[in-house]
């Protein structure tokens, strides 16, 4: 049998271990949340950058379409001039 003093020491030791376990658990959860937040921030930055790239690509494509239209008009004009020379 254990004396009351020894039982109190064991109980204090167990309570201390429980408190330590709780603190470590809270720390691990906090670190996990921090990592998740960092990953979300990184993903958000990438999404913003991709959105900007997509917008620039759309602008470039629209410029190309406009340039193609102008080039087609110029080629059509040249073709008409050549047709006039042939006749």
What key attributes describe this structure?
mainly alpha, 1 helix, single chain, 87 residues
Question: How many individual β-strands?
Answer: 0
Mean pLDDT across the residues is 91
Separation of the first and last Cα atoms: 124 Å
| Percent strand | under 5%
* Outline: rod-shaped
**Rg calc:** 37 Å
- Please work out how many helical segments DSSP would assign: 1
Task: Summarize the biggest pleated sheet.
Answer: none
Order of helices and strands: H
Helix content: over 70%
Secondary-structure-derived class: mainly alpha
Q: Spans with pLDDT under 50 lasting ≥5 residues?
A: none
How does this model look, in words?
- The protein has 87 residues and is mainly α.
- The chain is 95% helix and 0% strand.
- The longest helix has 83 residues, at 4-86.
- It is rod-shaped.
Mind sketching the topology for me?
Layout: H1 4-86
Q: Nutshell version of this structure?
A:
This protein is an all-alpha fold and 87 residues long. The protein has one helix and no strands.
